[in-house]
Every structure is written in C-alpha cells, then in structure tokens.
Amino acid sequence: MYKYVVYDYFEVTPDAIDILEQHYNRKELTLVTCVPPGTYLRRGIIKAKLVEM
C-alpha cells in the first residue's frame, strides 16, 4: 500500500502540457481533473508526495 500527502493544487488551461513532465528523481504523484467537472475549460492539478510504502 502506498501513502501520499497532497501538497499543492492549482488550475491550468487545457493546453498547458508541461505539467505532465516526468521527474524520475522525485517520488510524487500528479492527478489531473476537469474544472468544472465534465467540461474542458480548465484542468485541476493535484500534486502529492509519497510518504510511505
């Protein structure tokens, strides 16, 4: 089981693909969702760090 702690939330435009860049030296998770739900207006970005494995 993995345990993460959320440390950041922000919104970007749908064309902001740089948010998907991977950093292999970090143990973190990036969740992407639509804001408002069910639309393509903005993307909600949730960043979390691995704290326990």
From TrEMBL:
What SUPFAM superfamilies is this protein classified in?
A: Sortase
Question: What keywords were assigned to this record?
Answer: Hydrolase
InterPro entries the UniProt entry points to: Sortase, Sortase_dom-sf
Q: Which domain of life is it from?
A: Bacteria
| Any GO MF annotation of the entry | hydrolase activity
Q: Which Pfam families match?
A: Sortase
What is the protein name stated in its UniProt record? Sortase
